[in-house]
Amino acid sequence: MARVRKPPGLLRRIGAAVLLAWVLGFLWFALALPRPAGAQKTDGVIALTGAGGRIPRALDVLRAGKARKVLIAGVASEVKPGEFAAEYKVSPELLACCVTLGFESVDTRSNALEAARWIAAEHITSVRLVTTDWHMRRAEFDLAMAAPRGVEILPDAVPSRPSMKTLFIEYNKLIARVLAWLAGW
Hints:
By secondary structure, this protein is of the alpha/beta class. It has one domain: 3-Layer(aba) Sandwich (Rossmann fold).
């Protein structure tokens, strides 16, 4: 007697659909990394410390007159303003008027909270967010959730050549962050 194979159960179908969505999402995430922004002006720039190129990009935007102020979020507590100025060739005048070093944050979520306080204190209505291309989506999500309502966020990604491991980890961090937000955290 031939055995009749049962169609997959509901749980298997749901699992397959979730896996397919994850794979397609990862392909989108890895193949369509955010790009650098154009010449659009904003009130401020927020650069998140971490991978190379972020701080120089933010300072270039400031020096080009595309923004009036910059926050460098996540600066290590042992960094002194003079050391920062020497490292990035920032004049004392530019540092005094237009550059804020943020020492409060230690991760992407706390970067966003620190940036949101700075945006409110500086009365900023539009901000350019500078971070690495593979990090942009999660950073932009966190900033959008933390920033005062109505603030326009212009993503300005610093191009990189991320490894598959970096993309995999960051994609899963993004998913975890969105799920945590949906759960109210």
